[in-house]
Amino acid sequence: MQNKQIFFTGIHKAELIKNEVGKVKENEVLTRMEYTVVSGGTERACILGMNNTSQKFPMSLGYCGVGYVEEVGSAVKKVSVGDRVLVYHGCHSKYNIRPESDITKVENDAVSSLEAAFVVIASMGLGGVRKLEIELGESAMVMGQGLLGIFATQFLRLSGANPVIAVDLNAQRRALTLKLGADYALDPAEEDFVQKVKDITKGKGVNGCVEVTGAAQALKQALDCASWMGRISLLGCTRVSDCAIDFYKQVHRPGIKLIGAHNFVRPKYESYPHHWTHNDDCNAIIDMIATKRIQVEPIISRIESPSDAPRIYNELCDDKNFPLGTVFDWRNV
Question: What residues form DSSP beta bridges with 65?
Fold first, then answer.
C-alpha cells in the first residue's frame, strides 16, 4: 500500500515523498490520518538542525494527529478497525503505524476531528501545568503563547490560578490569549515588563510559571518575576543557553523550584497526583473540549494540503509570525 509522507531532507528543506506502508506487528496499529498539526517550535528547531536536535536527515516529524484505525496487530486489545484515534509521535503522513501504547481512542462524538488533532500537543501543556501543583488563588504566568503555551494558559485558569498572566512577543497571540481566559497579556520586550508583573501580583511575583519558549532570556525573566519560593515548570526545550543566570540570587536564595517538565517525564501505566499518564491526560482533554471548558477552534489558523509542505516549512523557517494553528489535511491525499 502506497503512502505519502513529509520528510525534512536537509536544512531548511521539506518534501512530500511517496513510500510504502510497512507491515503491522502484533502490538501495532495502522491509522489512516485525517489531520496532523504542525508543532512550530520543535519542527522549526529540527528542520534548521539546531542544538539538542538529532541533526540527522532525512527525518519525519508530526507527533500530533487524528485518524481512523485501518488494521491492528494480533495482540492489540484497546482499539479496533474503524475506531477514531489520536496518534502520538507519528509522522506527517497519510498512514501511521504506532505501538498500541501511543494510540488513544476518541470516544466522544461531541469533539470534532479538527479539535481532536490538537489534543496530544495540548496534553504537553497540561503536563507542564500539573507539575506546578497550583493551588486555588495562586498567581500564575505562561512565558510564550505558542500551541503549548496557549493551552497551558487555559489549563491554569481551570486550575484556579488568579491572576493568569500570558506573555508573548506577538501582539495577535496576546490578544487571542485574553479571549481564551488570560487576565493579562504582556510583551516581554517592554522595559518595565518585570515591574508590570510585580504590580499585577501586588509586589509578590508569580507563584507558578510555565516557561514554554525554551529561550534562556525567557527563563531569566521568569526568575525575575517569581515569588519567594515560587515554582517554574520548564516545558520548552532549551536549544541555546546564551543568557547568564545568577543561580545564587535568582534560584538558591529565594528558594525557587525549577521543575523539568519534558513530556516524556510521565508515568507509563498509572496516574498519580500531578503526574498523569499520556492517555489519561488525552482523555481528560477530550472531555474538557466536549464540555467547552477549553477551546480549540479559535487556535486553528489554517488547514493546508500536505502537497504544500515545502511552502509551509519555508514559512516556518523564515516567518517569526508563523500562523499558530497550522493543520495538514490528509483526507484527499
Answer: 36, 87
Overall size of the chain counted in residues: 333
Distance CA 161, CA 183 (A): 10
Domains of the chain from N-terminus onward: 2-118+296-329 (3.90.180.10), 122-260 (3.40.50.720)
Pair 88, 99: CB distance under 8 Å: no
Closest CA to 299 of 146, 157, 120: 146
How wide is the angle at C-alpha 137 spanned by C-alphas 216 and 212, nearest 5°? 20
Which pLDDT tens digit goes with each residue over 280-308? 999 999 999 999 999 999 999 999 999 99
Torsion of CA 177, 181, 187, 191, to 10 degrees: 180
Q: What is the arithmetic mean of pLDDT over 210-230?
A: 95
Average pLDDT over residues 21-42: 96
pTM over 0.85: yes
The values of phi and psi at residue 184, to 5°, are -140, 150
Cell numbers representing residue 121 in the block: 500537543
